[in-house]
From TrEMBL:
Pfam families: FCD, GntR. PANTHER family: TRANSCRIPTIONAL REGULATOR, GNTR FAMILY (PTHR43537), TRANSCRIPTIONAL REGULATORY PROTEIN (PTHR43537:SF49). One of its GO terms (molecular function) is DNA binding. Residues 10-76 form the HTH gntR-type domain. It comes from Devosia chinhatensis. InterPro entries: GntR_C, TF_FadR/GntR_C, Tscrpt_reg_HTH_GntR, WH-like_DNA-bd_sf, WH_DNA-bd_sf. SUPFAM superfamilies: GntR ligand-binding domain-like, Winged helix' DNA-binding domain. Keywords: DNA-binding, Transcription, Transcription regulation. This is HTH gntR-type domain-containing protein. Gene3D superfamilies: GntR ligand-binding domain-like (1.20.120.530), Winged helix-like DNA-binding domain superfamily/Winged helix DNA-binding domain (1.10.10.10).
């Protein structure tokens, strides 16, 4: 089923942005594919003004605009993807360390609930894939928010998370990766529950290092 559905709501631009992001990151639109503004506006049931505003907010993140050609889904080289993962490992490693000092008991409980929910997903249990269903259910973003560091959150959200979401689901489907990622998430939560900053940073960096290797293997395939 297509992610693009008619919009019913007050904030047309924001809803259009969410739907376009979901469509791109789910693979409905492929890297390098041209996006027809007229067709997208028709499918969303809105005028082209709010859609252009949404696409403008995604320029440099998930789409590129070329004069006389139009808008295309961003294409990342293997080197681009690898560098994004190196940057993510540094930022999220520090985020996990800070979270040990600043996370609330409620936030720790929320992470444990997310992990238990992830563990119950049929595709995770079958070892087929492990990817977040929505931003609110994103394990990594929850830890970044628990670090209560606006600079780290902004750097990750502004570009890195947008661009890597294109590749997260594909790399999570490699044999054995889903179950391994779940165990790695468990190790991160254990370190956070113990308020052990060294172990939390180490567990996060190990997890993202393995995620990078999986992503590189998926790109090569």
């Amino acid at each position: 089923m297509s992610t693009i559905q008619p919009i019913v709501g007050a904030s047309l631009s924001s809803e259009a942005l969410d739907m376009v992001v979901a469509a791109i990151t789910s693979g409905e639109f492929q890297p390098g594919e041209r996006l027809s503004e007229a067709e997208l506006a028709r499918r969303l049931g809105i005028s082209r003004g709010p859609l252009r505003e949404a696409l403008g907010r995604l320029e440099g993140r998930l789409v590129t605009r070329t004069p006389r050609i139009g808008v295309r889904v961003i294409e990342l080289s293997k080197r681009n993807i690898e560098d994004l993962f190196y940057t993510r490992e540094a930022l999220e490693g520090m985020g996990a360390r800070l979270a040990c000092e600043r996370i609330s008991s409620q936030e720790v409980a929320r992470l444990r609930d997310l992990l238990n929910t992830d563990r119950s997903q049929p595709e995770v249990q079958a070892g087929e894939a492990y990817a977040p269903r929505s931003t609110d259910d994103d394990f990594h973003l929850s830890i970044v928010k628990a670090a209560h560091c606006e600079q780290i959150e902004r750097l990750l959200m502004d570009q890195i998370y947008y661009q890597l979401r294109i590749h997260r689901r594909k790399s999570s489907t490699l044999p054995g990766r889903a179950r391994a990622a779940l165990i790695e998430h468990e190790n991160i939560v254990i370190a956070l529950e113990a308020r052990d900053p060294d172990q939390a940073e180490k567990a996060m960096r190990t997890h993202l290092r393995n995620a990078r290797l999986s992503a590189m293997a998926a790109v090569t395939e």
